[in-house]
Design the sequence.
């Protein structure tokens, strides 16, 4: 993996950072789009994964639900293969460098930059006057998450690209404003690069092949939760919307058949096969034959994760211990960087 844009300037090590919202209800799109990649990346690079509870409270969270969601997300990530010894896994509020650096970045970022963020506009909706200040400042906290570790690579979905560009702008302005005053510090922060989900599949709603599978869809039947029972998994796949045609024998034949394409995409991703390979087996088959095969595959792949996560959640002390250990290792990286930042800014 190369660091094309700032290789010559930034001298530090390559490091991956990503943040995960603590929503208890992880779904198949989260697994195939993010978790699976996070697990692969830990084989290749130093990886830091953070459950972003500070970000979560930019919109109202019931404290009890937040508390259990932090543990549940942690449990599922571990159950799906994230190794808390290899990766640093912790929750954001345990490491005060995030909030401290975010404040400094609030004073680096410009109102105009944040005003352009489309996620704020979407999340605030019509009633912008009533949105929290934290929701507006969300992207500078995200920049702080990444830059507190001088992370160079950030696996994110398309929807987070704009926030990552803002992180680069903040890093660049900080480097210009403060680094130029001190020789050698003009490349203090790396300009973090997105690792955009290249081969990761887009998992769509089971009820509407034109919409992404999303935790915010009011209907449960549109998505597969990682916590679903075997029966629920099978039922949701059986009831997934399809068209009346048989499956084509090549992926070109899925064009303009978004629901068929989605089920084939899910099958291929779960089996680590290409769509063409799956269709060479199922081409000509009716959905009445394909769906049970997909349900069996989904149960075989996902049930072990669910069972392992349940086992972990039955021992919350163990989860808390893992998070505390991760936080200590995170502080060991972030605190010295924050100390340098404070020095550059002029704090005593
Ligand atoms: N905003 C990201 C999301 O909603 C979560 C996040 C917070 C994040 N901090 C981050 C992602 C830092 C990558 C890096 O998905």
Sequence:
């Amino acid at each position: 993996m190369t660091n094309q844009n700032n290789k010559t300037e930034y001298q530090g090590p390559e490091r991956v950072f990503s943040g995960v919202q603590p929503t208890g209800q992880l779904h198949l799109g989260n697994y195939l789009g993010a978790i699976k990649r996070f697990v692969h990346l830990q084989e290749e690079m130093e990886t830091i994964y953070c459950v972003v509870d500070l970000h979560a409270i930019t919109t109202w969270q019931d404290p009890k639900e937040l508390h259990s969601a932090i543990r549940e997300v942690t449990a599922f990530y571990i159950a799906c293969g994230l190794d808390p010894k290899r990766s640093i896994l912790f929750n954001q509020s345990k490491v005060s460098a995030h909030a401290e650096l975010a404040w400094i970045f609030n004073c680096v970022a410009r109102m105009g930059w944040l005003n352009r963020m489309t996620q704020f506009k979407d999340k605030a909706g019509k009633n912008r006057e009533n949105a929290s200040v934290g929701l507006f400042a969300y992207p500078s906290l995200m920049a702080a998450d990444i830059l507190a570790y001088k992370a160079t690579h950030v696996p994110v979905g398309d929807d987070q690209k704009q926030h990552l560009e803002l992180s680069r702008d903040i890093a660049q302005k900080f480097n210009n404003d403060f680094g130029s005053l001190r020789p050698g510090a003009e490349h203090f922060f790396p300009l973090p690069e997105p690792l955009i989900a290249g081969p990761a599949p887009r998992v769509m709603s089971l009820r509407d092949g034109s919409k992404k599978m999303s935790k915010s869809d009011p209907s449960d039947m549109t998505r597969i939760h990682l916590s679903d029972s075997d029966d629920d998994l099978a039922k949701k796949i059986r009831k997934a919307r399809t068209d009346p045609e048989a499956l084509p024998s090549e992926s070109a034949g899925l064009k303009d058949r978004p629901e068929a394409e989605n089920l084939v995409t899910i099958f291929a991703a779960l089996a680590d096969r290409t769509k063409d390979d799956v269709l060479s087996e199922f081409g000509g088959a009716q959905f009445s034959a394909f769906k049970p095969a997909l349900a069996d595959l989904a149960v075989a792949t996902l049930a072990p994760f669910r069972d392992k996560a349940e086992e972990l959640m039955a021992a919350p002390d163990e989860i808390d211990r893992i998070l505390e250990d991760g936080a200590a290792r995170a502080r060991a990286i972030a605190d010295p960087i924050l100390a340098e930042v404070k020095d550059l800014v002029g704090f005593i």
About this structure: The mean pLDDT is 94. The chain has two domains: 6-202+316-345, 220-311. Residues 17-19, 21, 52, 55, 142, 145-146, 154, 156, 160, 163 surround tryptophan (CB under 6 Å).
